[in-house]
Design goal:
The structure holds two protein chains of two kinds. Chain A has a single domain, classed as 3-Layer(aba) Sandwich (Glutaconate Coenzyme A-transferase). Chain A is built from four helices and 13 strands. In chain A, a hairpin with a 3-residue loop joins strand 10 and strand 11. By secondary structure, chain B is an alpha/beta fold. Chain B is 25% helix and 25% strand. Chain B contains seven helices and eleven strands. In chain B, the strands form two sheets. In chain B, strands 1, 2, 3, 4, 8, 9, 10 and 11 form an eight-stranded mixed β-sheet that branches. Classes of the chains: A alpha/beta, B alpha/beta.
Chain lengths: 211, 232
């Protein structure tokens, strides 16, 4: 069994983003999804600092300090792009206009609760940014994360132990082992990587999974 | 004649008083009114409450105000950055108060202040630490948190061009908090790259109408982007 690499995970997420979708890719791992969006599909990327129609990173020497993404990295804009202020940008999420967001996570619960902004450590400086708005705002919330922590604990959990970002907001989980839907009846495994059986995934995850 | 132009950065922030609440535009450094912040640092006001998305970068702007211990409280969504060491240090010393607000709630609370809204129910943050102790309500089967407006004494913002009526045009993602902060402060000061004659701004492109702006000051800084454009 060979776990999905970060790029393979990104490619797998990208496959599930359809033609015509308005999409926000969260900071970190989810930004890789942009590199794998199928060429034939017209997909519009939203960045919450105020741009629809975001393009790839500029060539070296062509960075513009006024044209950045939510991770504060320089980006480009595509023909058809538009700029807007922050209240409009978050209205696009909260108002139910954004089709998908892809977020990283520390934990996702069996009922779709998301924890991705704060470890809860007493000496940590909390920072939330747009995570809570994205979590409840996009029509479909996709999470992309490694299935297990470095110490081998499942990040898919019965109940999140880290502080929540949103309640019951996650629709689909993409990990380096499987693709799992959060449904009213529980977690449903859609796919597993080659060589992995459901009972083994179940053992690693510890939360009831439906095949 | 209406003329909101101010001759210098220092004159534009001269009457900021101790204890005031100051909104600072910008997301990271895009749209950050750096020259106005330098003016505020020279001006000396203390005990400030700063409303901004971040809590300063490296040895500039808000970070320097923090370093000089002139900030009592920061209201922001994302204080922690790789170069936010001044905030980090003061926070750990408990020398600055932090009100952490989800970014969309921050924007909407500012917008609400500028729009005369008394409070609003938002789904963002429901069931999280950041909604603890706040009033909630279920409306049509969905859960919401009651949030109140954020007003300021001053808003310091940056735009690309302005005219003597205070109309503003922004540049790309530097627009970010500018238009909403402009509406939420008693005195909005806009630093612009260029002041142009009335009528030169395309009315269709004005993102902040002059009614929201009280002072416009031009900054004389080398415009690297103009040079880049000339090359391209």
């Amino acid at each position: 069994m060979k776990k999905f690499s970060r790029e393979e995970m990104a490619a797998r997420v990208a496959r599930d983003i359809p033609e015509g979708a308005y999409v926000n890719l969260g900071i970190g791992l989810p930004t890789l999804v942009a590199n794998h969006l199928p060429k034939g599909r017209e997909i519009i990327l939203h960045t919450e600092n105020g741009l629809l129609g975001m393009g790839p990173a500029p060539e070296k020497g062509h960075e513009d300090p006024d044209l950045i993404n939510a991770g504060k990295q320089p980006v480009t804009m595509l023909p058809g792009a538009s700029f807007f202020h922050h209240a409009d940008s978050f209205a696009m999420m909260r108002g139910g206009h954004l089709d998908f967001c892809v977020l990283g996570a520390f934990q996702v619960s069996a009922t779709g609760d998301l924890a991705n902004w704060h470890t809860g450590a007493p000496d940590a400086i909390p920072a939330v940014g747009g995570a809570m708005d994205l979590a409840i705002g996009a029509k479909q919330v996709y999470v992309m994360m490694e299935h297990l922590t470095k110490s081998g604990e499942s990040k898919v959990v019965a109940k999140c132990t880290y502080p929540l970002t949103g309640v019951g907001c996650v629709n689909r989980i993409f990990t380096d082992l499987a693709v799992i839907d959060v449904t009213p009846k529980g977690l449903k495994v859609l796919e597993m990587i080659e060589g992995l059986a459901l009972d083994e995934l179940q053992r690693l995850t510890g939360v009831t999974l439906h095949g | 004649m209406i003329d909101k132009r101010v001759a210098s950065i220092d004159a534009a922030v001269a009457d900021v008083a101790d204890g005031m609440t100051i909104m600072i535009g910008g997301f990271g450094t895009a749209g950050m009114p750096m020259e106005l912040l330098d003016g505020l640092i020279r001006q000396g006001a203390r005990d400030l409450t700063i409303v901004s998305n971040n809590a300063g970068n490296a040895e500039t702007g808000i970070a320097l105000l923090l370093k000089e211990r002139r900030v009592r409280k920061v209201i922001c969504s994302f204080p922690r950055q790789t170069d936010s060491w001044h905030f980090d240090k003061l926070y750990k010393e408990k020398a600055v108060e932090l009100e952490l607000v989800p970014q969309g709630n921050l924007a909407e609370r500012i917008r609400a202040a500028g729009s005369g809204i008394g409070a609003f129910f938002t789904p963002t943050g429901y069931g999280t630490l950041l909604a603890e102790g706040k009033e909630t309500r279920e409306i049509d089967g969905r859960h919401y948190v009651l949030e109140y407006p954020i007003r300021a004494d001053f808003a310091l913002i940056k735009a690309e061009r302005g005219d003597r009526w205070g109309n503003l045009v922004y540049r790309k993602t530097a627009r970010n908090f500018g238009p909403i902060m402009a509406s939420a402060a008693r005195c909005t000061v806009a630093q612009v790259q260029h002041i142009v004659a009335l009528g030169e701004l395309d009315p269709e492109a004005v993102a902040t109408p002059g009614i929201f702006v009280h002072r416009v000051v031009a900054v004389d800084v080398p415009d690297a982007r103009a040079a880049a454009q000339a090359e391209a």
